[in-house]
# Entry
Amino acid sequence: RIGRWAAPVESLHNCPCPDMEKVVLVTGANSGIGLALCERLLTEDSQLLLCLACRNMKRAEDARSALLTSHINAHIDLLHLDVGSVQSVLTAAQEVKARYNRIDFLYLNAGIMPNPQVDVKALFKGLFSRNVINMFATAEGLLTQQDRLNSDGLQEVFATNLFGHFLLIRELEPLLCPGGQTSRIVWTSSSNARRSAFSIEDIQHRNGTEPYSSSKYASDMLSLALNRHKNSQGLFSSVICPGLVMTNLTYGILPSFFWTLIMPIMWLIRIFTNTFTLTPYNGAEALHWLFVQNPESLDPRAKYHSLTSGLGKNYTQSRQVSNQRPLLPQTLYCSSLLYVNLR
# Structure
């Protein structure tokens, strides 16, 4: 598998020593925010070793080629990873441990929103209300999804957006903060992450209609729990919100003709709000910003938001994740219990 999917063998060695390039693994890296992040990271640090962890290897190859066009000397490896499949995660983790002896940054960016259903009445009502900006920014009261079981018997959204990434973290623990070094985990969350959609008694959201919102809120809680348990060992977790970004996931919510109609309105609204980042490059702002920060200086309870001013200036702002202390150990416990049962 390594010979087939990866970069030339000489770039795959178990990264031999601490003073060499950073090792960065990005899930969902072949398009959208993930690909934009990779571009920004290589511009920031041309010496890093970048691993694109993707489900579709043809698209991963295309992404690697595009990145090498503008960064011809970059070290870019490919990894076949479907975070929605337990076996794929376990296989990929073994491959990562065979290639590298550490991971400096683990960007957990892959995610799905299957079969989104829009409340059209609420949409048109919101377009002509004072709530229009919040409606587009959070999709609150606007979106539901039809989830389903995957081949592992897990809810597909939960498995892809949360559990597969948690499983990856647990499997890669030997490479995270080895030998007293620090390692970073960064989750791509959403403004759609809402406490009201999440229940610790139904962590997979089997009985609800907002699995995407539930899974993103759970990732916020899991990041907080990881910081509580792992900061002392040198592992730091952060969570970001990319703002409203036009990606394949976003475009799948409504028919293409509708986006064509409302895009001029959205660009106009952007003058009055900083949460409409719109492009993947802008949406990756907080992900890139965290790359250059000292982890000890970060607030473990914050969500870092990508923001774009009306004049097009990108910046990052921290906002507190809603404090739900009782949920932290329970979220970690439930995820750990699933890990043990499915491992």
The radius of gyration is 19 Å. The chain has one domain: 2-342.
